[in-house]
Amino acid sequence: MNLQVENRQICVGNIQVVGVASSSVFLIGDTEVISLSSVFDTPPESLIIGPLVPLASGRA
Q1: What confidence tens digit (pLDDT) does each residue in 30-54 have?
Q2: What pTM, to 2 d.p., does this model score?
Q3: What number of CA atoms fall less than 13 Å from residue 8's CA on the CB side?
Q4: pLDDT digits (tens, 9 = 90+) for 7-36
Q5: Which domain of life does this protein belong to (predicted)?
């Protein structure tokens, strides 16, 4: 895999997020390192997954 990066100025005017996953990263710009970790100590049989709830649109 060949990756070519050209660092230039970035200008973001508007962003609309429709949904967010249970594990997600939203990043604008650059970073050196992203380190993620997760610990889940509840037994699987006690996990209750309910219906998905959409985010509010923010429009009145």
Answers
A1: 777 877 777 777 777 776 777 777 7
A2: 0.32
A3: 5
A4: 788 888 888 888 777 677 777 777 778 777
A5: Bacteria
Amino acid at 47: L
DSSP the chain: ---------------------SS-----S--S---------S-GGG-------PPP----
Record the tokens describing residue 23, joined without a space.
Answer: 């594990």
Whether residue 12 contacts residue 47, with contact meaning beta carbons closer than 8 Å, is answered with no
Chain mean position to CA 8: 23
Q: Quote the distance between the C-alpha of residue 54 and its chain's center.
A: 15
CA-to-CA distance for 41 and 19, rounded, in angstroms? Answer: 26
